[in-house]
Specification:
The protein has 111 residues and is an all-alpha fold. Helices cover 77% and strands 0% of the residues. It contains 6 helices and no strands. The longest helix is centred in the middle third of the chain and has 20 residues.
Length: 111
């Protein structure tokens, strides 16, 4: 299950509507309970490890990750909102979801 979450999280790097970090946090939880080897790999990973360790240890999100998340969400919103083929309900839903995610991210403590 942890591996499935890692794969989904990795795909989320490239798909704007699929968040990466929650899936990596779920993978870390699964690996922590099921595979010491894979848990160690994930939390020591050069890119994936630091945000996971920060969240698990102190419930903080580094400011550079907040800025990166906000930038990617705003960039994807810019392209999504210009598409004529996306129904209005889809556009409104995306904006509401994005604002909820941004409010969650920016109300967490920063490291």
């Amino acid at each position: 299950l942890g591996t499935i979450f890692v794969v989904i999280g990795f795909i989320g790097i490239f798909l704007p509507l699929l968040p990466t970090t929650p899936f990596l946090l779920l993978a870390a939880i699964c690996y922590e309970r099921g595979s010491e080897k894979f848990h160690s790999w994930l939390v020591n990973h050069k890119y994936f490890g630091p945000p996971i360790v920060d969240w698990q240890a102190r419930k903080v999100i580094r400011i550079q990750y907040k800025i990166l998340a906000a930038s990617m969400m705003l960039l994807s919103a810019f392209f999504l909102l210009q598409k004529q083929t996306v129904p209005m309900v889809g556009k409104v839903s995306y904006v509401v979801f994005m604002l909820a995610m941004l409010s969650f991210i920016f109300t967490r403590k920063s490291k």
